[in-house]
Write a structure and sequence with these properties.
CATH topology: Rossmann fold
CATH superfamily: Dehydroquinase, class II
Order of helices and strands: EHHEHEHEEH
Structural class: alpha/beta
Number of domains: 1
Helix content: 25-40%
Shape: globular
Largest sheet: 5 strands, parallel
Number of strands: 5
CATH class: Alpha Beta
Number of helices: 5
CATH architecture: 3-Layer(aba) Sandwich
Radius of gyration: 14 Å
Strand order of the largest sheet: 2-1-3-4-5
């Protein structure tokens, strides 16, 4: 199984941006952990991060025919981007949304994800373990 690991805005700053909220691991460290977890599940991981909504949408479109599933952390775009929601639906791929922090326990504007309804599942508040959980969901029956 080929999985696209898609990271949205500000995730390139992991490890330095609010580590008390997002953890101390950097994005490359998180991606390495995901690769190890994926390998144990017989999966291959491709990663992509952008701070630009359109680039994330373009990469999702590019996953059609090249990936079997997507693990996506849209960052704050989860709360605002109906375009990203529509792009997830347009791919026809199984997408699991992941958030490092518990978005429901933070500022009120973060409590709702407009992208989650387009996804097969959403995992929030489990830190890096949420990515492992998403990969395990994808490895299970569809």
């Amino acid at each position: 199984m080929r999985v696209l690991l898609l990271h949205g805005p500000n995730l390139n700053l992991l490890g330095t941006r609010q580590p008390e909220v997002y953890g101390a691991a950097t994005l490359p460290e998180l991606e390495d952990r995901c690769r190890a977890w994926a390998a144990g599940l017989g999966m291959e991981i491709e990663t992509f991060q952008s701070n630009h909504e359109g680039a994330l949408i373009d990469r999702l479109h590019g996953a059609i025919g090249t990936a079997d599933a997507v693990v996506m952390n849209p960052g704050a775009l989860a709360h605002t981007s109906y375009a990203l929601h529509d792009a997830v639906l347009a791919t026809g791929l199984r997408v699991i949304e992941v958030h490092l922090s518990d978005i429901g326990a933070r500022e009120p504007w973060r409590a709702t994800s407009v992208t989650a309804p387009a996804c097969a599942a959403m995992i929030s508040g489990h830190g890096a373990e949420g990515y492992r959980q998403a990969l395990e969901i994808l490895a299970g029956p569809g």
